[in-house]
Automatic annotation (TrEMBL):
Gene3D superfamilies: 3.40.50.880. Pfam families: ThuA (PF06283). InterPro entries: Class_I_gatase-like (IPR029062), ThuA-like (IPR029010). Transmembrane segments: none annotated. This is ThuA-like domain-containing protein. Residues 4-220 form the ThuA-like domain. It comes from Plantactinospora endophytica. The lineage of its organism: Bacteria, Bacillati, Actinomycetota, Actinomycetes, Micromonosporales.
């Protein structure tokens, strides 16, 4: 049986307990023993982290200690998988090495929930995480993230420039900007999966998003 740690907490607006509970039964049905942690202390336990095949994190904002960040990063480099969604992974902490691990950091979203489309990258349409998805219509927060070229981008969202008549006035960008929304990356021997979708339970339980997320968790887990 493989071993999964679910680490959750931080800002309650991202419902870390309810959100992770969506996926705990799935992980168990997929053959994982699941251990839930409501603090970050486990990251500083090298023996426990080395035994984990997968860490699923939902921890928005908050503070991570140097020992905790170092422990998490070392475990992933050694083969532990790391996965999460939305602010629980790219809106967590202010720690440079942590964001180098994730390959992206949240910097902006339009006010409130907006209608938009998540589009699978055509050249990655056969990837097991997004196969048979195509595109997904969403009404939720739309994340602008800064990312790096090591990511394998599986799906994107596009920001169109806002006209001067928009409620907030003209946008500071003057052309369409397409940004990563779902990606994977390798970090040492470990795999990382990130989805920017998941502000609320309705997002995570939307069938195609749930499918992407579940597949991403399995993909990220240590390859035995």
């Amino acid at each position: 049986m493989r071993d999964a740690l679910v680490v959750r907490g931080g800002w309650e607006g991202h419902v870390p307990v309810a959100a992770t509970e969506v996926f705990v039964p799935f992980l168990r049905s997929a053959g994982f023993a699941v251990e839930v942690h409501d603090d970050l202390a486990v990251y500083a336990d090298p023996d426990r982290m080395a035994a984990a095949d997968l860490v699923v994190q939902c921890w928005s904002i908050g503070t991570i200690s140097e020992a905790q960040a170092t422990g998490l990063i070392a475990a992933v480099r050694a083969g532990t998988g790391f996965a999460g969604w939305h602010g629980g992974i790219v809106g967590a902490f202010h720690h440079n090495a942590y964001h180098q691990l994730t390959g992206g950091v949240f910097v902006h979203h339009p006010a409130g929930f907006v209608d938009h489309e998540l589009t699978v990258s055509p050249d990655r349409a056969d990837h097991p995480i997004v196969r048979d998805i195509g595109s997904v219509r969403l009404h939720t927060e739309k994340y602008w993230v800064l990312t790096d070229p090591l990511n394998d981008v599986l799906a994107t969202v596009t920001f169109e420039p806002e006209p001067a008549t928009a409620p907030a006035g003209a946008s500071p960008w003057d052309r369409s900007v397409t940004l990563p929304a779902v990606w994977t990356r390798s970090w040492g021997a470990g795999r990382v999966f990130v989805s920017t979708v998941g502000h609320k339970l309705d997002d995570l339980t939307l069938p195609p998003i749930r499918r992407i997320t579940e597949r991403g968790l399995i993909w990220a887990a240590r390859q035995n």
